[in-house]
């Protein structure tokens, strides 16, 4: 399995930034943990930089100088409950302190990002923990997971102007299963409007690839995304299937995506499947 880190500002393009994580699947005896810093500078309105120190397990793992739009190297941890603290380096302010429980055989991503209030305004710093879907992907297909971790209200995930997933709220995620190939003009717009917040452009999705997109912003009024992908999840290679479009079972923690008509969806993603779920694991303060 190969893992690559990708990132961008403003209008986002999928481009490698030169980091390769360990080329192995999650083990049965340890937990994988990715760390995504998606909290912009001055998001709290106090003029401070958001460069932080992350401490996992009371000094077991310490990452200094972690800047916004960073994906820290994947780490393997024994299953346990770990205290996680995040401290802003500019003034030593403790932004986050909570216990996180990790289970063996599970891959997680911890995302530091703005929390928002009922008026869709940034009201603090939080960490959301997601389970990464590393399940086998059918031959000829790939997946894209979009995680709403920006300081803004609900968004619509679109291809061009057609909505494939509507009303995705912070801090939830949505997953699309698509035929491998080019997915055209992928973007996120403020829910119910044509105002684009994030532009991914034409996304090339390889067979067996799972792309994880973490919404980032606002940063000086602009939005972007922090992105990494995991490859090598495919089953026996085969032709790209035609498939059908529809919703999969979301489980008890799921929320429903709004769709802009079944016919439009089928024309849009030609065989994609959309699943939505809330962040699967929560940090306990």
UniProtKB/TrEMBL annotation:
Membrane spanning residue stretches: 255-276
Source organism of the structure: Microcella humidisoli
Domain of life: Bacteria
Descriptive protein name: DUF4397 domain-containing protein
Keywords, alphabetical: Membrane, Signal, Transmembrane, Transmembrane helix
InterPro entries registered for this protein in UniProt: DUF4397 (IPR025510)
One Pfam short name: DUF4397
Classification of source organism: Bacteria, Bacillati, Actinomycetota, Actinomycetes, Micrococcales
Signal peptide (UniProt feature, chain positions): 1-20
Domain DUF4397 positions: 35-158
């Amino acid at each position: 399995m190969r893992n690559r880190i990708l990132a961008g500002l403003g209008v986002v393009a999928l481009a490698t930034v030169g980091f390769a994580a360990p080329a192995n699947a999650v083990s049965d005896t340890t937990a994988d943990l990715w760390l995504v810093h998606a909290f912009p500078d001055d998001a709290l309105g106090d003029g401070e930089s958001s460069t932080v120190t992350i401490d996992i397990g009371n000094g077991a793992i310490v990452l200094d100088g972690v800047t916004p739009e960073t994906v820290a190297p994947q780490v393997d941890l024994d299953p346990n409950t770990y205290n996680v603290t995040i401290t802003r380096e500019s003034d030593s302010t403790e932004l986050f302190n909570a216990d996180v429980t990790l289970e063996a055989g599970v891959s997680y991503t911890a995302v530091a990002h703005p929390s928002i209030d009922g008026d869709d305004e940034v009201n603090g710093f939080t960490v959301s923990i997601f389970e990464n879907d590393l399940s086998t992907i059918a031959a000829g297909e790939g997946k894209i997971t979009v995680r709403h971790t920006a300081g803004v209200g609900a968004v619509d995930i679109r291809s061009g102007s057609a909505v494939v997933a509507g009303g995705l709220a912070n801090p939830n995620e949505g997953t699309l299963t698509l035929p491998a190939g080019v997915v055209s003009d992928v973007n996120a717009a403020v829910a119910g409007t044509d105002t684009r917040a994030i532009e991914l452009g034409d996304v090339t999705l390889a067979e067996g690839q799972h792309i994880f997109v973490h919404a980032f912003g606002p940063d000086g009024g602009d939005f972007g995304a922090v992105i990494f992908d995991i490859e090598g999840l495919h089953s026996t290679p085969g032709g790209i299937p035609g498939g059908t479009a529809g919703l999969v079972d979301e489980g008890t923690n799921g929320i429903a995506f709004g769709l802009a008509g079944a016919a439009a969806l089928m024309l849009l993603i030609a065989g994609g499947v959309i699943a939505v779920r809330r962040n699967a694991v929560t940090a306990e303060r």
